[in-house]
Amino acid sequence: MCSLLKRHINNDIPHRRFPHRHETPDFPTFSSLLRTTTKYQFQRIRSQILLDLRPAYPTRHEKSHYRGEEVFGAPPPHPNSVLNLFVACDVAFALPFAYYRVCVAGDPASLDTGVEGTALLPDTLKAALRGQARLKTDEVQLARKVAFRHCTSWQCSGKSPANRAAVFDWIHPEVATQSGILERGEFKGSKYCSQCSQNFAQELSKAKKDTWENLPSYFNLPPWETTTDLGL
């Protein structure tokens, strides 16, 4: 089977090489490998290349950086291309976070860049738009809790309208920033009192956990506990 795959890589993807074990190749190579192993039911090899992908598309809430499409190297593939591949090849465990990456990149309906493979299929697009609306709702709710929290300290600079607007925009930006709640870190734009800073951190941590737990349902996918090993 490996010989067949090696010939496929060499013949169909010029200037590419068959990846080493535990190495995630560039996206064109990975896509070709995944489609071939899925089509010809090379389950053992398919499972191995997907297991190597798991850290970038986790099924549990992680405190570390979520890599997503960055795992394929620079320049990373378009999030839409990755989602289309995972849908076509039924990589169930990676679908929630792949959908999320599409949503934080901008408007899924307007992300057809003209590059082959970036236009989402109707059902996929519908799920992405539905999930994006839920994610934006999460952002607004978190922004309201943090930006408009009542503070009794007269020394807290966070009460000014300008600072509240800055915090609100940081959590719920009007322009796509390639990141969402899961990537939000400490806000460093203003000097809040210790009580507000602590509350901010607690609310953000809770929002991240809640968003992650609900992520599959946002895109009408099965819950995490039933998808952990699906698609391998």
Describe this structure in a few short sentences.
With 232 residues, the protein is mostly helical. It contains 9 helices and no strands.
Core attributes:
232 residues; mainly alpha
Describe the overall structure:
- This protein has 232 residues and is mainly α.
- The chain has 9 helices and no strands.
- Among the domains are: 1-52, no CATH class; 136-218, no CATH class.
- It is elongated and about 70 Å long.
- The mean pLDDT is 80.
- Helix 4 runs antiparallel to helix 5 and helix 6 runs antiparallel to helix 8.
What is the tally of helical segments?
9
Beta-sheet strand percentage?
under 5%
Helix/strand order, N-terminal first: HHHHHHHHH
What integer value in Å does the Rg equal?
20 Å
Identify the overall geometry. elongated
Measured distance between first and last alpha carbons: 17 Å
How many distinct beta strands? Answer: 0
Chain oligomer state: single chain
Let me know the largest β-sheet: none
Uncertain segments: none
Helix content: 40-55%
Helix/strand class? mainly alpha
Q: What is the averaged pLDDT score?
A: 80
Task: Give the topology.
Elements: H1 2-12, H2 27-39, H3 43-51, H4 79-88, H5 95-104, H6 122-147, H7 161-171, H8 194-218, H9 224-227
Helix pairs in contact: 2-3, 4-5, 5-6, 6-7, 6-8
